[in-house]
């Protein structure tokens, strides 16, 4: 595929449940705390701590799709597809998202499969992962969880994402990283697909690593502030289609993309405005 004459929005990714597989829509609305429906649900353990692929790589094989009413349709190996509605806000629980306490709402225990049969979603997911988990919903992202004050402006909030409303990556940087992996000690692990990095926005038509220098960008009608580079964790070594782990890309990022002690790929974004993003939207570097 020829390189676009200018940067454009190449792909969108929405992950309704934190650390599960998501979907790739042709368009998505930008809300102050991220893409509509992105990471509004999460799993927590018995102590209230977030459960992610860091501890349970098998989460990669579970997929959540958003529903128009804000609920989700959840599928996973060995589990009948379940439809889970938005819970009422009267059963709250505190979720610990990497040290940040977030008031959230416990999902109702009754989910329904295609035949209308009821299932206990907490029990089904606990059995699937082999550890006790509960599914929670972030009912009001406008007030529940502020962005890290070291990088935020007053009033900025975030969903159950790791720390910032959105993550942007570029196809050129992935191509460059895959070239480096091919020259390294584990060339058989590449090339890696973009899904390893779980971005919200994927931009085509840039130079490799050009995003390192971005401070503000516009995607179509929506503007974003670039908050900080995204430090990567063990989830990137997890094959999102099998749940198996390898050495890459952390080994190669450690050699070539280590900044301030972090292995960097992609940039975290905070919306400055709201609107609708569509594939093919022009991407303009404002600063």
Notes on the protein architecture:
The chain is mainly beta and 287 residues long. The chain is built from three helices and 21 strands. The strands form five sheets. Strands 1, 14, 15, 16, 17, 18, 19 and 21 form an eight-stranded mixed beta sheet that branches. It has a five-stranded antiparallel beta sheet with strand order 5-4-13-10-9.
Binned, the helix content reads under 10%
Form type: globular
Kindly report the average pLDDT value. Answer: 94
CA gyration radius, whole angstroms: 19 Å
As a percent range, the share of strand residues is 25-35%
Number of strands: 21
Order of helices and strands: EEEEEEEEEEEEHEEHEEEHEEEE
Number of helices: 3
Low confidence ranges = none
Structural class: mainly beta
Overview in brief:
This protein has 3 helices and 21 strands.
What key phrases describe this protein's structure?
globular, 34% strand, 10% helix, 8-stranded mixed sheet, 287 residues
List the helices and strands and how they pair.
Elements: E1 8-12, E2 27-31, E3 34-35, E4 41-44, E5 50-51, E6 63-66, E7 72-76, E8 79-84, E9 92-97, E10 100-106, E11 110-112, E12 118-120, H1 121-129, E13 134-137, E14 166-170, H2 171-182, E15 201-204, E16 216-219, E17 222-231, H3 250-256, E18 258-259, E19 262-271, E20 275-278, E21 283-285
Parallel strand pairs: 14-15
Antiparallel strand pairs: 1-15, 2-3, 2-20, 4-5, 4-13, 6-7, 7-8, 9-10, 10-13, 11-12, 14-19, 16-17, 16-21, 17-19, 18-19
